[in-house]
Specification:
The structure holds 2 protein chains of 2 kinds. Chain A has 9 helices and 13 strands. By secondary structure, chain A is an alpha/beta fold. Chain A has 2 domains: 225 residues, 3-Layer(aba) Sandwich (Rossmann fold); 57 residues, no CATH class. In chain A, a hairpin with a 5-residue loop joins strand 11 and strand 12. In chain A, helix 2 crosses helix 3. Chain A starts with a strand and ends with a helix. Chain B is 81% helix and 0% strand. The chains are: A alpha/beta, B mainly alpha.
Chain lengths: 303, 267
């Protein structure tokens, strides 16, 4: 559904139009029918990539295809739904009027338009009394729901969402998560960016991690997390501070807690404890989460 | 066909958005107030009252149309960009050309409504003051509309790549240059003929005046108040050729605005 090969994007900022490269040789392939999470810290290039896909930004070089068309072509947006981060709309309209406006732009009319509006509003739990109020009175959560509803109004084959869960309360996040899953079950391909890594981990089929404009990890959640070694946490009895720990073992922040960076270090530490008469109270293994991996990648990029 | 429908929807939305603008009402009321004031001007003037009312009101129509284009029109595109409403709109299967043309037609609709309202006020004043209202005045009003159609396109062109303040200044500049370019050329040629300026300076001045006259839309063509007021016959096909002239300039301005808008990044 989305193919990106060697995408590069440079912004020119300030009076002197100083170049600042935002994307470096991005490669991504989003197959049809999956939920694809796009994660990274602020300013990493998530929104830039999304805006290139939706035709809002031009790009320097590379090949980008959305539903078989270049995003520079209007046809690429025929089966595309997009909700920007913090969606902004004409605030003098009511939520329902706004839906009608976007529906007519999508070529819907009359009864079909009304039915589609009801469907979209119900899906994002926005078919409430506030939908007939002016948008300027809406909270951030209401705006996010309306934004999501307008993006699905044309029943798109591809839905691109930029931070769809940001600013939502736990109920709102759950509703959006359920809407994404429900649309995906109907065959909609979903490409979305998010800071909420636990949500990404729970609903995405595949993820890509972007740091400083470069894709650093890509694959299924299993593939991405298993690419990092498992750490072991060992809890022991008291150890005097002036002893030499085996290689790969670090003291944790809590007293009596130790982190072994891999299985070899774990075995060495167990042997060390047995030799020195130190009691072992507990051993846990810890598979890194997306958050751990992202934190590690950010630290690596900064260093 | 789909593009035409998009243009219509965007134009209607632009019209609805513009008529909520408080500045628009200030300009409309100011124009009506000034049109009524022209009755007093007619009384005070040494010239014929009817002539003063007719020529003053036509000038008010042109200037108030200019103010609407500058204060309402220029902010239209910029507002879409600054408020980021353009993000959801342009992510739909809408070409940027449709967006620009839709915005243009919406604003032109506002200017047309304004002129329509002023025309009613104009004829009402002429009837009440027994100032011989004639249908020939409509041709002058039609040309004011053509002039405004060009000015709105200029405003939209500048607002597609510049800040609101600069766009306003550029649009005002084009309006006044368009009205004065003919006089400038005539003056320069007169001065040259009289031999007051000679040599290289004379050639340079004349060339500059010719370039200004050629590049800027000749908005002086749309001011036919002296013809109408004094009931002088216009040249044959005058309205047709001036309409064509306006359409040509509008086409060029909208094409450049669309081309530039196509190159823009929306953050």
């Amino acid at each position: 559904m989305i193919q990106i090969e060697g995408l590069n994007k440079t912004y020119h900022t300030g009076f002197l139009m100083r170049p600042k490269k935002a994307l470096f040789d991005i490669h991504l392939n989003v197959p049809k029918g999956i939920i694809y999470g796009f994660i990274g810290p602020n300013g990493a290039g998530k929104s830039t990539t999304i805006k290139v896909l939706t035709g809002l930004l031009n790009y320097d070089s590379g090949k980008v295809q959305v539903a078989g068309y270049s995003p520079r072509v209007v046809k690429s947006r025929t089966h595309l739904g997009y909700c920007p981060e913090q969606p902004y709309f004409y605030d003098y309209l009511t939520g329902r009027e706004l839906m009608s406006f976007y529906g007519r732009l999508a070529g819907l009319q009359g009864v079909e338009l009304q039915k589609r509006i009801e469907w979209a509003l119900n899906l994002v739990h926005a078919n409430k009394d506030w939908i007939d109020r002016r948008l300027r009175t809406y909270s951030k959560g209401m705006m996010q729901r309306v934004g999501l509803a307008q993006s699905i109004l044309s029943k798109p084959e591809l839905l691109i969402l930029d931070e769809p869960m940001s600013g939502l309360d736990p109920m709102g996040r759950r509703d959006v998560r359920e809407a994404i899953l429900s649309l995906n079950q109907e065959g909609v391909t979903i490409f979305y960016s998010s800071h909420l890594l636990s949500d990404v981990e729970s609903i995405s089929d595949r993820v890509a991690m972007i740091v400083d404009g470069k894709i650093v990890r890509e694959g299924s959640i299993q593939e991405v997390t298993s690419s990092c070694s498992v750490q072991y946490h060992v809890r022991t009895g008291e150890i005097t501070s002036n002893i030499d720990l085996p290689k790969g073992v670090k003291a944790s922040t809590q007293s009596g807690e130790w982190t072994c960076e891999d299985a070899v270090a774990r075995d060495l530490f167990i042997q060390f404890c047995l030799n020195n008469g130190i009691s072992i109270e507990r051993i846990d293994h810890h598979r890194p989460s997306l958050e751990d991996i992202l934190t590690e990648e950010i630290a690596r990029a900064e260093s | 066909m789909q593009s035409l429908s998009h243009i219509g929807i965007i134009a209607l939305n632009t019209f609805r958005e513009s008529i909520r603008d408080k500045i628009l009402y200030n300009i409309v009321f100011l124009a009506i107030g000034l049109a009524l004031f022209s009755i007093l001007l007619g009384e005070w003037s040494v010239f014929d009252r009817a002539h003063v009312i007719k020529s003053t009101t036509l000038t008010i129509m042109s200037l108030s149309g200019l103010l609407i284009s500058v204060f309402v029109g220029i902010s239209l595109v910029q507002k879409e960009i600054q408020r980021k409403t353009v993000l959801t709109l342009l992510s739909k299967p809408i070409s940027r050309v449709s967006f620009i043309v839709g915005k243009y037609l919406g604003l032109l609709g506002v200017v047309a409504s304004h002129l329509f309202l002023l025309t009613i006020v104009y004829y009402l004043i002429l009837f009440l003051t027994h100032s011989s209202p004639s249908l020939s005045l409509l041709s002058a009003i039609y040309l004011v509309f053509c002039e405004m159609a060009v000015v709105v396109a200029v405003a939209l062109l500048f607002s597609s790549f510049s800040t609101p303040v600069l766009s306003a200044l550029f649009t005002l500049g084009v309006y006044f240059a368009g009205h004065l370019s003919n006089q400038l050329l005539e003056q320069v040629q007169f001065v040259k003929r009289m031999g007051e300026v000679e040599g290289f300076s004379s050639i340079l001045m004349e060339k500059m005046a010719i370039v200004i006259h050629a590049v800027f839309p000749g908005l002086y063509r749309y001011n036919i108040s002296s013809y109408v007021v004094h009931q002088i016959a216009l040249p044959e096909w005058y309205l047709f050729w001036q309409s064509l002239y306006a359409i040509g300039y509008i086409g060029v301005f909208l094409a450049v605005a669309s081309w530039w808008f196509n190159r823009r990044d929306f953050l």
